[in-house]
Amino acid sequence: MPLKDVIAPFYVWKRAFEKPYTTAKPIEERPGAASYRGFHTNDMALCVGCGTCETICQNEAIDMVPVPGIETTAKDSGLRPMVDNGRCCWCALCVDICTTGSLRLTNEYIWVSTDSDGFRFIPGTGDNPWDDKALGYRRDPGYRLMDYERQDMAMLTPEESARSFLEVVKGYSAEQARKEAERCVDCGICIATCPAHMDIPEYIKAVRDGDFETGLRLLYRTNPMPATCGRICTHRCEEVCSVGHMGDPVAIRWLKRYICDQVPESDYADILRDQSTSNGRKVAIIGAGPGGLSAAYYLTRLGYAVTLYESQEKGGGMLRYGVPSYRLPYDQLDKDIDYILSLGATIHYNTRVGRELRFPELMADFDAIFFSVGLSDPYGLGVEGEDHPRVLSGLKVLEDVTHDRDPDVGRRVAVIGGGNVAMDAARVSRRLGAEVTVLYRRRIEDMPADPEEIHEAQAEQVKFVTQAIPVRVEEGPSPRQVNIRWGEAEMVADEKGGRPRPVLMEDRIHTETYDSIISAIGQGGDYEFLSDEYADRVEMKRGKVIANEYRQTTIPKLFVGGDIANNTADAISAIADGHQAAVGIDHFLSSGS
Amino acid sequence: MSDRSRYPELVDGKPAVDLDSEKYVKLWHGPQHPGITGNMSLELILCGDEVVDCKTHVGYLHRGFEKLMERRTWIQNFPVVCRIAVPEPAFNEYLYAAGVEELAGIRPPERAQWIRNLNLEMMRLASYMAWLGGQAGAFGNNTIGQWTITHRDYLLDLFEEMTGGRIYHMYMLPGGVRSGLPDGFEGRLEAVLQKCEKLLKEIELVLLNNSVFKARAVGLGYIDKDMIDRYGITGPNQRACGVKRDLRKDAPYLVYDRLDFEIITGTASDAYERTWVRYREMHQCIDLCRQIMARMPKEGPFHEPLPNVLHWRIPPGQTYVKAECTRGEKGYYLVSDGSLYPRRICIRGPSYTHAFPVMEKLAIGTDIADIAGLMVSLHTYPPEIER
Ligand SMILES: Cc1cc2nc3c(=O)[nH]c(=O)nc-3n(C[C@H](O)[C@H](O)[C@H](O)COP(=O)(O)OP(=O)(O)OC[C@H]3O[C@@H](n4cnc5c(N)ncnc54)[C@H](O)[C@@H]3O)c2cc1C
Ligand code: SF4
């Protein structure tokens, strides 16, 4: 044995004096590293309770629970994650997938408590000892576990679209639809916001699975006009989509459209199997717009004999006579309508209740009546000279185009208004070859029109003049022309905290000459058809009919829906009303209340 | 050589042990025994001091991971795999990620590959530190374990700031890694590497040049060269026998083909030689960490974005990915049927061979006092055997 092997071990005697590398808790503190995965914390105000953390956690350590002080709103489930530290493994996948970035981990990792249930806690309440500790792990922006960008939608170029009535939006490819559907996190927050409460995450799953039959059945559960809504819905669901907090919201509307595009109408009957047995009761529906059609669908399915009365020569209401075909091609609207009517409802076109037929007769002949007659009376500009023959109504222009009549807008057009009707009138005028200027009282961001509509109108070279208030309409230089005097407005903050008001600046008045002025500042309801006998008995408020949750008016057998009864005035609300009313009528006729 | 006449007679190839004869004693070594890194047990038959038969028993750590993973989505398995070999989780993370990437056709960014390589070499060093303490302790030299575990802790501090976790890093996930390196990391890593180097020098004096250690480890657990392929022996156990194989060279992954290193081998193939090989490999880890730090890109992406992982489907297919972990070849076999969940995942860890057939063979003829030292010299991790 070499001598070295005996002596060598003694060389390291100095180690005997080394201090241990141990933290003497609780005397000493050793904070976790800057990205330490310690106990959870949550920014309660940022969190929307989407529950994606609960979905991803492979340990089922998270439960979504109600928390005092947190209210359920359209954008917020009202729930917050509760973490079970007895199950958590601090993988932080919940942090990575969090749609708002509210859930994070602190760098605290030691916790002593006498409460044996205390390991289940709600992060971020402020009651947890580590809630004020330094933050630990957060998702690095350089890495992500989901796709924050929406699949681009193929569209006509503005040059092409400004010249034709072809549909502008072309629809997703199979690959795009699948990818877009994958972006959904299944939180379902959108369902509450959708007026019809459609089964959104479920039909998006159907797109992922490529199972369009299930998809179609899911759509029809709450919406019998999905091909239409897949194109022109106001898609408020997308405004609350939790993916939208850090990225683009899921293109819910386009996915709905995608399902319908995959199934030909000839297959609908086989897939939906909407059979019903007659219950011997009769319901009349006045107006075959989306509200009336939706009610017709659900009532027929419930076994009612449905008769629709429609003053126009075709069904669809404002979706046909208002919405232009480059947004909603007629064949798509027809696809929805034809299927609804194929279930057996009778429809009388060119039949205006109050003209061809008296309302009291219907009241006598039917067990219940639903009316959804829409808003057809355009509001006037409310300025001197507004009945000049070159002042046209937006609704009239759009209706003329549907009927293939030339609305005769001329080459230079001013559109007054900032809603969807104004945008449609402007873009239709562009397509008819006019140079178009939109005059609007407030700012672009105040426009009630869809931002996409505004954007597309701008791309099609529609000119926007904002903070412009019409003052007077005057004779133009020739009988086919008209002058408009308008004044610049300044935005004045509202004392009551409302949105800023435009106030005319008297010294900044302009006069311009146009071939026509299209007025599109809103429309009201026309209730003449109700006849004197009933008009007084139907309760109204600010021009809209009052109804209960079943859409029942103050006359028990009379139900109402659509634009004349709701404040959202869009297709999906009318459809939801129709569905609600069908349920209400069924309830009323079977229980008598 | 021991006197074979004292051994029990073989009946059908198995020793017929008559315990009532009082010639033999049956001794359970484990399942809780400090000589074994994790819970498993050796059922030993002794004749006097000498082991005449050895049967291994596992089952104490069976957590059913492979089955469990078939019920979890691809991303949900990422935090699971690190638990498969507790003292050495990183290789599992890497292999799972690499397998999924291959099936899904994802190419992690360059920087991620360097960071992963650094992480794995740091892991190797930390894992060897724990083993070295065990190896010394198994022969009664417990102080060394205190030092090596402290130094492993220094490395865990680095893991903590790099990954957010000390033991279960959950850092290398499909697509790359979860973050870049923190500011000033290089300096702190270098300081720890220097401490480790200093320690290793001292350990050379105190252990490898220790007459007691030599007396007990030299000649212990000799692995014959012809056992290597028959038993599927890999890693330092194989290299100490003179077989020059190392996946880092033979089938380079990550950035190993851009690093300078040689395969370390020995000749004597006993417990002492295996210690030497590992000891030199620890120096090699330090050197590789330095090379990586010097050459790795400091900027740029470290993760290839994934689609929404909640609905992540991996195209149908199968793959086997492998890496050289501290103890030899570790492999992941992954099968996807195109659904949200893996169809099958099977994990091949070197511990299975080394702790089962190899140990059962080597134990025979060994003194009971050396069993722990022998077991540790094979460097096995029972949790990896059972998955
Ligand atoms: C230009 C324009 C663009 C629009 N764009 C969109 C959009 O992009 N997205 C969206 O969601 N919504 C849009 N809307 C709103 C949407 O069209 C309406 O909310 C929806 O059509 C309302 O449905 P409804 O059933 O209440 O009435 P309507 O659609 O107005 O239908 C009422 C029907 O009743 C008939 N009728 C009326 N009186 C009688 C009577 N006495 N007897 C018999 N029949 C009668 C009418 O002829 C009409 O067919 C738009 C509206 C307009 C005008
Ligand atoms: S850190 Fe991981 S285990 Fe813990 S709650 Fe989050 S997802 Fe679940």
The rounded Rg of chain B comes to 22 Å
Are there runs of chain B of 5+ residues with pLDDT below 50, and where? none
CATH top level class name of chain B = Mainly Alpha
Count of separate structural domains of chain B:
1
CATH-assigned fold name of the largest domain in chain A: FAD/NAD(P)-binding domain
The total count of helices of chain A amounts to: 21
Look up the CATH topology of chain B: Cytochrome-c3 Hydrogenase, chain B
Radius of gyration of chain A: 31 Å
What class do helices, strands and sheet pairing of chain B give?
A: alpha+beta
Shape of chain B: globular
Series of H and E elements of chain B: EEEEEHHHHHEEHHHHHHEEEHHH
Q: Would you state the CATH class of the largest domain in chain A?
A: Alpha Beta
Contiguous runs where pLDDT drops below 50 for at least 5 residues of chain A: none
Estimated helix fraction of chain A:
25-40%
Could you give the distance between the termini of chain B? Answer: 38 Å
CATH superfamily of chain B: Cytochrome-c3 Hydrogenase, chain B
Distance between the termini of chain A: 107 Å
Outline type of chain A: globular
Q: What oligomeric state do the depicted chains represent?
A: heterodimer
